[in-house]
Amino acid sequence: MARKKDELKELKENLTLKRKPVWDQLSQKEKKEAETLARDYLKFLSQAKTERECVEVMVELLKKRGFTEDPSPYCFTVFRDKMLAVMVAGKKPPYYGLRIIATHIDSPRLDLKLHPLYEDLDMAFLKTHYYGGIKKYHWVARPLALHGVVVKPDGTRVKIAIGEDPKDPVFTICDLLPHLARKTQGDKKLSEAIPGEKLNVLVGGLPLVGQEEDKDRIKLSILKLLNEKYGLTEEDFVSAELEVVPAGPAVEVGLDRAFIGSYGQDDRICAFSALAAALALKEPLYSTLLVFMDKEEIGSDGNTGAKSRFLEKLVYDYLKMYGVTPGGDTVLETFLRSKAVSGDVTAGMDPHYMEVHEKLNDARVGYGVVLTKYTGHGGKYMANDAHAEYMAWLRRIFSEAGVVYQAASMGKVDEGGGGTVAKYLASYGLDIVDLGPPILSMHSPFEVAHKADLYMTYRAYLAFLSAGD
């Protein structure tokens, strides 16, 4: 009888999949590395709340490490201030294939309309149009900041960031008190309780000195303040990109500080991890291309999104740096020889909402970076579905590099789904798969990630970029 129990134990040990928390598998040195990475990440999140700010912060980090905009083994390219490409030369020229990581740096938010400023009941407001998939009720009754840029007809750029400095005022969107909300909100679906047209930001309430019967004295007061500080007029809103985002810095969450809480972790946790991996990369075999993209949250459209042909231009220029005269077939051949990762987050299982999760196949927070073979929705529509050979190759390099990973999908089959940039890069014929950490409260103004998953995402990207054949 004892022999059979020993056999069962041996079979279980040798044949079954074991998932263990990352923290249980780290050495003290690795735990210190994870904490250092988390501190750097907190600073990054606090500084980079828009796609333009992400590019600015990452360029600053690149320049400090010797990267240049001029063609060189360590270089970068900025496109329209919202898209960034980073290149690290490998021992093999790009024609033999690239190691590509594509992430996105836009996040759900509220954008100001073209004519946003108005006054009603002696209060001034800014009208907004939400960007990406949000729950509208998340954005009311909370401190908000205004970030962005205004471009004047003469080309002058005015940067705006109000609500982050402790001395700054903040903004808010007012909600209806529960005493009056029973019919207006309480009897409605959650998705309908806060109409998009009521996401109007409170910005002022003090009138200019004048006669009481004078109209729009508070609106004029706000315009006067904007003109005195930034030189703006009301018409300048037409050529502005101003985003309303949650106010305040990224913070540690929990008594043990295990988590990071912040706006914009989808997908800046992947962008930060990819950049950190590139900065740590030393003499890779294959040449590296990192692409930080815009517009993913609204379908990757536009000339700074994954559907643009900018990626082709990057590969074209990369080949020229090595003296290759690229033709259409040369660029395509380079893509076909390349391997890629779509750096994007997935849903972490929340024990309070297990009715939408599939426990065997969904991601656990704190259990490592997530390898997502396919995304899309019911029937795998609109998804890239990575090949078994590519999944096996990634398993091997992760095992060799000591990367703790989990293979997971996102939710029960008919509960919904999501998309990434993977399918757009797959159209070039390269192998690609989604790889990123699990997130709690995804697409909310305060997303939550585990420090251990951040660390393993960085380690996974570094292993990918460093790998040989």
Automatic annotation (TrEMBL):
Cellular compartments per GO CC: cytoplasm
Q: Tell me, what is one Gene Ontology molecular-function annotation carried by this entry?
A: zinc ion binding
Matching entries from Gene3D superfamilies are given as:
Aminopeptidase i, Domain 2, Zn peptidases
Q: Which UniProt keywords apply?
A: Aminopeptidase, Hydrolase, Metal-binding, Metalloprotease, Protease, Zinc
Q: What Pfam family is a match for this entry?
A: Peptidase_M18
**Cofactor(s) listed in the protein's UniProt record:** Zn(2+)
Q: InterPro entries attached here? A: Peptidase_M18, Peptidase_M18_dom2
A Gene Ontology BP annotation from the UniProt entry? proteolysis
Q: What is its EC number?
A: 3.4.11.-
At the top of the EC hierarchy, this enzyme's class is hydrolase
Q: Does the keyword Transferase apply?
A: no
> Which family, according to UniProt?
Belongs to the peptidase M18 family.
Q: What is this protein called?
A: M18 family aminopeptidase
Q: What is the lineage of its organism?
A: Bacteria, Pseudomonadati, Thermodesulfobacteriota, Thermodesulfobacteria, Thermodesulfobacteriales
